[in-house]
């Protein structure tokens, strides 16, 4: 009887010893210890590379649009001239939902209409957008990450006329530089009120010369325009030219120096709003810290058992020489760092696919990945690359070229590890048709996203084997295009110098043709994976022979036997 009672305990220690999963039994911080724990905080990772930290002198920012239910369609909005007295309708577009009535961007002007409008500007610029505006014709780029804020500042009332998606579209339409974009968005949010669908948020705002972190918060549900007070509070800090940074759904701006206008911008109420809401006490003698006041996120990679690992992990990848430990509180990690070596666009693509392999938070360590080392089974580690990605954008702004040619949005649909980046030049006049359709709830072979989900679905079944097929396809269809960009740049410049419209035509055809080629290839790849690994075997189409599939790792098989021992009689499988 005593032995029977000890068996579960012995087996538990055996499982932990096999997996090396000591972190699994470490206590997680209670929700009340983290005021942002219950907010939408596990959404998007933004990587930022300033021009002096990149291999080619470009600036780069990424947006891992991790949602699982959001609209994934993309579109292009052309430039336009507007008559004096024209107004711009303001829509409310919830970034977290898809409208069942049809494509969000076709319905937004009517279904999202608030009945409110602001004065239009004489000319609006062309831009590409997905869930947000991502790049306009002036090479102004945006990438987004949700931060959350203290509850008392949330304003979901109709007084908040502008939500985050709308703010990005207005920024795209009206700005020529990153600084101007920040000023425009900040002023509009202050004047008309920010919030409704959104609360604490961050944009990486870039152009060929600079990358800024722009963070914005509502000011509470009692705000009204008649108060004469700003309807938002915001702050922006520039990343040094030879540095990189990352935002993993955590506020990154700490102490600010508004006298240093080269590096800081903010709303007039940046400190007073915190004081009024008892988020900062000037009498404390402590310097004002934006993130500690408006969006505190305590904990480290270690204390959160990997839930807050992305900030540390990014710095661990790009600057290992700094030896920043995973136990370092995230709030104490630097705003930005100088990478050990300049990063290329392919380096950044690789980082967006990072799964924390080889770290204490490795998702396939021990038995975490199941029999085929699938990094998506284990939910304890929040990775840069996750399974519920709508798309990942890599916004690249390059100086020394006409803006139409210098700007590129590299777009990857679905999970980064099983997808392929495709370029969209700033100067293209249309996006591929397959980018403009589809949603989560209806399978659609006309949708680019479904092509990548189709392949991804088959990879998940036998991940350790099928991911190698995907890597081969990426090497054949992604790498050569990255390497071909200088040649395309040159051809486009020659055409552009003679006729700008023809140059845009050339770029549009290149991007659409390449996207169509990749999407078709991914449909075919999904078909091949289905056949190749059918019934966990190995079907060789050329030899027309079926081979034996790879056996599950011994550690997993041992864990299954231990689990059988632990099972109660009524949990035993039925006898056949």
A few lines on this structure:
With 576 residues, the protein is an alpha+beta fold. The protein is built from 14 helices and 20 strands.
Give me the secondary-structure category.
alpha+beta
- Envelope shape: globular
Give the strand order of the largest sheet, numbering strands 1, 2, ... along the chain.
14-1-2-16-17-18
Question: Which band does the percent of strand residues land in?
Answer: 15-25%
Rg estimate, integer Å: 25 Å
- Work out the helicity level: 25-40%
Q: What is the average of the pLDDT values?
A: 90
Show unreliable segments: 1-41
End-to-end Cα distance: 30 Å
The profile of the biggest β sheet is:
6 strands, antiparallel
Number of strands: 20
How many DSSP helices? 14
Oligomer: single chain
Give the key terms.
single chain; 576 residues; six-stranded antiparallel beta sheet; 14 helices
Could you please describe the fold and organization of this structure?
This protein has 576 residues and is of the alpha+beta class. The chain has a domain at 34-395. The chain is built from 14 helices and 20 strands. Strands 14-1-2-16-17-18 form a 6-stranded antiparallel beta sheet. Strands 10-11-12-13-15 form a 5-stranded antiparallel beta sheet, covered by helices on one side. The longest helix is centred in the C-terminal third of the chain and has 33 residues, at 500-532. The radius of gyration is 25 Å and the shape is globular. The two termini are 30 Å apart. The model is unreliable at 1-41 (pLDDT under 50).
């Amino acid at each position: 009887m005593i032995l029977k009672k000890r068996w579960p305990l012995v087996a538990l220690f055996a499982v932990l010893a096999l997996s090396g999963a000591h972190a699994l039994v470490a206590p997680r911080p209670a929700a009340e210890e983290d005021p942002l724990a219950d907010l939408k905080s596990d959404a998007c990772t933004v990587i930022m590379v300033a021009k002096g930290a990149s291999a080619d002198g470009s600036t780069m920012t990424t947006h891992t649009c991790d949602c699982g239910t959001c609209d994934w369609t993309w579109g292009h909005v052309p430039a336009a001239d507007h008559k004096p007295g024209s107004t711009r309708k303001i829509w409310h577009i919830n970034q977290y939902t898809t409208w069942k009535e049809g494509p969000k961007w076709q319905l937004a002007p009517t279904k999202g209409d608030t009945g409110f409008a602001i004065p239009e500007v004489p000319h609006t610029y062309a831009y590409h957008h997905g869930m947000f505006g991502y790049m306009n014709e002036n090479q102004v780029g945006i990438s987004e990450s949700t931060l959350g804020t203290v509850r008392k500042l949330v304003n979901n009332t109709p007084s908040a006329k502008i939500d985050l998606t709308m703010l990005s579209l207005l920024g795209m339409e009206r700005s020529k530089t990153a600084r101007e974009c920040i000023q425009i968005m900040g002023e509009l949010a202050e004047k008309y009120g920010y919030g409704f669908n959104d609360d604490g948020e961050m944009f990486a705002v870039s152009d060929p010369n600079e990358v800024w972190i722009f963070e914005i918060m509502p000011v509470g549900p009692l705000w009204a325009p008649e108060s004469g007070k700003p309807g938002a509070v915001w702050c922006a800090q520039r990343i040094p030219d030879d540095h990189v940074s990352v935002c993993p759904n955590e506020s990154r701006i700490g102490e600010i120096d508004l006298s240093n206008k080269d590096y800081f911008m903010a709303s007039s109420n940046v400190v007073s709003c915190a004081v009024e809401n008892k988020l900062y006490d000037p009498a404390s003698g402590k310097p004002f810290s934006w993130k500690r006041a408006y969006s505190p996120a305590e904990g480290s990679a270690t204390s959160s058992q990997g839930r807050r690992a992305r900030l540390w992990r990014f710095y661990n990848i790009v600057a290992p020489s700094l030896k920043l430990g995973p136990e370092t509180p995230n709030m104490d990690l630097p705003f930005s760092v100088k990478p050990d070596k300049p990063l290329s666009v392919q380096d950044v693509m690789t980082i967006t696919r990072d799964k924390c392999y080889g770290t204490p938070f490795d998702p396939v360590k021990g038995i975490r990945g199941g029999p085929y080392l699938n990094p998506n089974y284990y939910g304890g580690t929040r990775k840069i690359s996750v399974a519920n990605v709508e798309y990942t954008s890599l916004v690249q702004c390059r100086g020394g070229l006409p803006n139409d040619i210098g700007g590129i949005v590299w777009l990857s649909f679905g999970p980064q590890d099983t997808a392929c980046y495709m370029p969209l030049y700033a100067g293209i006049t249309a996006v591929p048709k397959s980018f403009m359709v589809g949603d989560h709830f209806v399978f659609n072979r006309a949708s680019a996203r479904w092509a990548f989900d189709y392949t991804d679905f088959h990879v998940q079944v036998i991940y350790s084997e099928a991911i190698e097929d995907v890597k081969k396809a990426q090497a054949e269809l992604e790498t050569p295009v990255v390497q071909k960009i200088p040649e395309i740049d040159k051809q486009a410049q020659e055409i552009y110098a003679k006729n700008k419209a023809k140059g845009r035509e050339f770029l549009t055809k290149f991007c659409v043709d390449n996207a169509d080629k990749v999407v078709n290839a991914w449909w075919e790849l999904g078909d091949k994976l289905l056949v190749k690994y059918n019934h966990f075997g190995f079907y060789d189409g050329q030899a027309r022979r079926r081979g034996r599939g790879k056996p599950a790792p011994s550690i997993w098989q041992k864990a299954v036997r231990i689990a059988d021992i632990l099972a109660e009689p009524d949990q035993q499988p039925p006898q056949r």
